[in-house]
Amino acid sequence: MVSNENSTGGGFTRREVLEIAAVGTGALVGGPLMAGMSPPTVAEAAARAPAPIDVSLQVNGTEHRLSLDPRTTLLDALREHLHLTGSKKGCGLGQCGACTVLMDGMRVKSCLSLAALAEQREITTIEGLTQGDQLHPLQAAFIERDAFQCGYCTSGQIMAGVACISEGHAGSSEEIREWMSGNLCRCGAYDHIVAAIQDAAAMSGSTRGG
Amino acid sequence: MHPFALERPRDLSAALALGAQSGRNDAPAEYIAGGTDMVQLLQEYVRRPDRLVSLAGLLDDSIDVGPQGLRLGAAATMAEVAAHLGVVEQFPLISEALLNSASPQVRNQATMGGNLLQRTRCPYFRDVAFAACNKRIPGSGCAALDAENRWHAVLGTSDNCIAVHPSDLAVALVALDAAVEIRGADGNRSVPLSELHRLPGDTPHLETVLGPGEVIAAITVPANAAGLRSYYLKVRDRASFEFAVVSAAVAIDVADGRIRQARVALGGVGTKPWRVPAAEAALSGSSLDPAALRSAAALAANGARGRGRNDFKIELMQRAIVRAAEIAGARA
Amino acid sequence: MTTAFIGQPVSRVDGRRKVTGGATYAAEFVVPNLAHAAVVRSTIASGRIASIDGGGAQQAPGVIAVVTHRNAPPLAYSPHKGAPDAVTGERLHVLQDDRITHQGQPIALVIADTLEEAVHAATLVRVTYAPEGAITDVTAVEPVPPADQSSPWEVRRGDPETALDRRRSRSTRAM
Questions:
Q1: Which of C18, C24, C70, C111 best tests the A interface by mutation, with the highest count of A CBs <10 A?
Q2: What residue spans define the domains of chain A?
Q3: Closest approach of chain A CAs to the CA of C88, in angstroms?
Q4: Nearest CA in chain B to C103
Q5: If you classify domain A137-204 with CATH, what class do you get?
Q6: How is residue B158 annotated by DSSP?
Q7: Which are the contacts of C47, defined by CB distance < 8 A and separation ≥ 6?
Q8: CATH of the domain spanning A53-128
Q9: What domain count does chain B have?
């Protein structure tokens, strides 16, 4: 979803736009103009494209060197540039958790991280959880407990779940629900997700929580 | 996002020099730390800096609890502070406020400084399609005044802006008399947290007293706020991962069934984190009797003004103070 | 037909792919020469586009095309009925004319080499609107009768009321 800034064409000043807008139904309105800013000219728009920067990302144990627009989020770097599409863009705003990855073992929302600021961190994505053919216990538990339907939130749920267990927050069902509150599931598989996390936590022996 | 040059300076003075290169608010240069608010603001074009200056690795991230009180480096994350044993034992109000905020992932990324400086959640501020927002465009009006203002402030408002400051941490800190250490290209200074944020008045676009390029370097809480019985009550539309409709931070020192001193602050209702000294004074020497709590809490409503869809907050915030005080009082 | 699987707790056949990030969803197929599109959306809820200028976007780096109702190909929708049909509803006609029927309605598509270029160029599209009052209260509008009165929008078979009554009294007796 793009939120766009529509400005008036034809050189209306902000005052004129607001006065026109005040007239009522049928009046022409343009979008908001930022104070002190005239709409960019064509030449300015072209000239202001940011120069790409070199970014080195450590992902699932491998170093990747990329040349990126500085605006690239870590999520877009993973999905569009490294073609690691396991991490998902559910909202792009840090609210749904489908983009959850681990940075130095800690769960974070990759859609809220700029790729260029994720250098020198060890990034683990869903693709990095399997060891060869061997599923991570939580991945196996998700299948066993049918903890997904469409599967779009699943990568984020699993990455967050892995962290939830290692943080020691996978004790009771209530605790898991609270500590998994950053991950939404539109299909409503929450009960099974909680069960899968409990199973995996019991296997790893880390059910004690705060 | 608006195109920006990303600066990753090696040391703090280089960062401060870059940040100071222009005026504040709509400044061509903005800072980014954890990024959990800034990246959203950039994605939605609410902030359009030409340069983004990364503070990663440049600020203190230590957490210190000792006889002098509490010192939080501005780069310490919400998760680190919430889990720190010294904070949990001596300043549980802070830990509680943090664990009631955001989600585990966001808490791993978001920093102390960034949390205090996060921008309002007002939907008219956050959506640039709304032309009337004095915070974004000085003089353009306030779209929230006669529209969907259920989430908006009843305290500290003006007819130019009724946006709520969203931080839970700030409410807890302001109750505990926190101060912030500020660093800039021209030097350092310290300011009580209660004075960091400005009331909107005629200038809602000026949210803090930070000068061009200044950063928060640390937050301190005095030792006399340690060990108080406290509770952070957050009333919200969802059980988790949601901003406050109303919140109350209450910390009390109780002896022989009497309150010796009280700290009371409100969230979700003020244009800045809202300490309630009148309620604190009324609680001083008071019992924990509900009627006494209720009459002290009523003082919070002085000067409160509903804007149509948030009138309920005026009653709710008083009840929140009472409930938080009761729970705090019952804690060993 | 085998009934061996009915009632059995069978794991989903796509389970492994979904839990390993290997399942490919719509936007995840790697295709050579892939372009990216960003959608420009209406900021008013009802009215018309008075003017739309994609020139600034067109000139932005990496942009391949800017599609608006001015240059979009006509799409094979059913003939416009002029009023929404209560039975079948009305499909949103995208980029076909200057009408705005809801806030957020797609009004332009900016196509570029990269996602960041497309998203940014989308902000350079300049639009002015002639807004009309939007109605957001369902009780404030008259119900719309179906345009096609010849085909019934209630179909009956058998006598459901009688059958339900009989059933109700049977279960009441059983209780």
A1: C18
A2: 1-49, 53-128, 137-204
A3: 27
A4: B129
A5: mainly alpha
A6: B
A7: C100, C129, C130, C131, C132
A8: 3.10.20.30
A9: 2
> How far apart are the CA of B103 and the nearest CA of chain A, in angstroms?
5
Nearest CA of chain A to the CA of C71: how many Å? 19
Please give the ipTM for the structure prediction: 0.94
- Among A31, A135, A143, the residue with its CB nearest the CB of C127 is A31
Q: Which of 169-208 (A) contact C at CB < 8 A?
A: none
User: Is residue B124 in a domain?
Assistant: no
**Minimum-distance CB partner of C59 among A31, A46, A143:** A46
In contact, B154 and B313? CB cutoff 8 Å: yes
CATH number at residue B244: 3.30.390.50
Give me the CATH number covering residue B38.
3.30.43
Domains in chain C with CATH codes: 31-76+92-137 (3.90.1170.50)
Interface test with B, best of C42, C43, C114, C125 (most B CBs within 10 A): C43
Distance CA B75, CA B90 (A): 21
Query: Could you list the pLDDT tens digit for every one of the 332 residues in chain B?
Result: 888 899 999 999 999 999 988 544 456 799 999 999 999 999 999 999 989 999 999 999 999 999 999 999 999 999 999 999 999 999 999 999 999 999 999 999 999 999 999 999 999 999 998 989 999 999 999 999 999 999 999 999 999 999 999 999 999 999 999 999 999 999 999 999 999 999 999 999 999 999 989 999 999 999 999 999 999 999 999 999 999 999 999 999 999 999 999 999 999 999 999 999 999 999 999 999 999 999 999 999 999 999 999 999 999 999 999 999 999 999 96
DSSP secondary structure string, B87-148? HHHH-HHHHHHHHTSS-HHHHHH-BHHHHHHPPP--HHHH-TT---BTTTSTTS-BTTTTSS
Structural domain span for residue B41: 5-57
Model pTM score? 0.87
